[in-house]
Amino acid sequence: MKPPLKVLLAAPRGFCAGVERAIQIVERALEKYGAPVYVRHEIVHNRYVVERLEAMGACFVEELDAVPRGKPVIFSAHGVPKSVPAEAEDRMLLYFDATCPLVSKVHVEAERHFKAGHEILLIGHAGHPEVIGTLGQLPDGAIQLIETPEDAQAFSPRDPNALAYITQTTLSIDEAAGIVSILRTRFPKIAGPRKNDICYATTNRQEAVKAIAHHCTGMLVIGSPNSSNSQRLVEVAKREGCRWAALVERAAAIDWSLITEGETVGVTAGASAPEELVQEVLEAIGARYTLSIEEIEVRQEEVQFKLPRALTTAA
Question: Which of 92, 103, 122, 210 could form a disulfide with 79 if both were Cys (CB 3.0 to 4.6 A apart)?
Answer without folding.
Answer: 103
